[in-house]
Fold this sequence. Notes:
Blueprint (H helix, E strand, L loop, with lengths): L8 H6 L15 E7 L2 E8 L6 E6 L10 H9 L2 E6 L15 H18 L4 E5 L3 H11 L5 E4 L8 H7 L3 H18 L3 E3 L13 H8 L8 E3 H8 L15 E6 L7 H8 L6 E6 L11 H15 L2
Amino acid sequence: MDSYQNDRTWLKVQEYLPPHNRLEKAELPEEYYLTIDTMEIHIDHYKVASPKGRVILFHGVGGNGRMLSALALPFMRNGFEVICPDLPLYGYTHCSKNVTWQTWVSVGTEIVNHYQSTKQLPTFLFGLSAGGMLAYQTATECPQLNGLMASCILDQRNKEVTKHSAKNPYVGMAAKPALALLQTVAGHIRIPMKWIGNMKAIVNNKELAAVLIKDKKSSGARVSLAFIHTMLNPVIKTEPEDFKSCPFLLVHPAEDHWTDLKYSLLFYQRLACEKQTVILEGAGHFPIEEPGLMQLEQACVTFLESHL
């Protein structure tokens, strides 16, 4: 099966990371596939001998599981096993069906249930970018979770959120009505996600952004019109005022040029659960800069340890 062993993009990404967060040969994750429905979901599994708990990391619409290695390594080094799936349409996951946002929620839920059925451990979710809302929706389906962490949490049902998280405000305003029409007759057609999302702002380093946008397994991926339409119109079963099943940590980058903190706060401030916010100094949307990346590690590990 395909794997990251022969993939050059993730190796290129390592050059832009702080040395402490670079993935060396001795710490490479185990790669394998998990069958969910008709899909073969690629998994990066960072293992430890006697794990304190488990962290499942969800990427967003500009990444894949291997891109989360900079976050996975600190968790592993602090005694947690880490699961990084390639969500359908991204990375090396194989999927022939038409993928919608609900497919992602179902996959997230099945992943949690699979690992909990294999070995019960205190389990946490972390969502980066759009993975933040995915982690939240997965948590509403999996009440046994110990905690939820996210770099942002965007409720795309809010027109202002859609307007300001799209490639530009004009695309954001036109996207919902246009997609509502198009997806009924052409929902299976795939377009580059960069046509809709502001992929140039996924990282603050322009050279790295260019590398990622060329990568068809991450920021250069093509997604179906049905996926975009359902992502912008998610069915959220549990509103934040009713969410009390686990604590929530928001670790938002201070220099995020894609999704401003105020748009995450629209949803976050409504949460009824125990919650905490940490602002990551100097970090962009994909937080690879110091001191923000170290602050993320410290805040998340403290959160994990306190909710085991």
